[in-house]
From TrEMBL:
Record's protein name: Peptidase C1A papain C-terminal domain-containing protein
Residue ranges constituting the Peptidase C1A papain C-terminal domain according to the UniProt record: 28-104
TM helices/strands, residue ranges: none
GO molecular function: cysteine-type peptidase activity
Signal peptide: none
Length: 135
């Protein structure tokens, strides 16, 4: 693991949540692209994660990388085009603008349209559990 990633994981208070969210989403997008053999390369929505991961969320003031990854696995996220960032980065009071339901295989499907009415794809992206990548 890269030194700076270890520093973020071992000393989470040193970095703002937005940086941690972007790191988690970058790694998750990479894993989704690998799992789908390059078929899905969406830029995942940080606002979806900040607004909808209700347990232990504190807007951009705190947060847990483990909880974010759990949310990605179990609930999934839409693309940034579907759920763009709000002007207020701590807009947790706005609540979650996306909801989803699970099919019998654990795959999530959106039950609301995108908050960005221009974007039509409200596909939910989920990722596998974290795993070690050999170097």
């Amino acid at each position: 693991m890269a030194h700076w990633i270890k520093k973020i994981v071992l000393h989470p208070g040193l970095f703002p949540l937005q940086i941690k969210v972007n790191i988690v989403l970058s790694v998750a997008a990479d894993r989704i692209a690998i799992q789908s053999k390059g078929q899905y390369t969406a830029n995942l929505s940080p606002q979806n994660l900040i607004s909808c991961c209700a347990k232990n969320r504190h807007g951009c003031n705190s947060g847990s990388i483990d909880r974010a990854w759990w949310y990605l696995r179990k609930r999934g996220l839409v693309s940034h085009a579907c759920y763009p960032l709000f002007n207020d980065q701590n807009a947790t009071n706005n609540g979650c603008a996306m909801t989803s339901r699970s099919d019998r295989r654990g795959k999530r499907h959106a039950t609301k349209p995108c908050p960005n009415s221009i974007e039509k794809s409200n596909r939910i992206y989920q990722c596998s559990p974290p795993y070690r990548v050999s170097s």
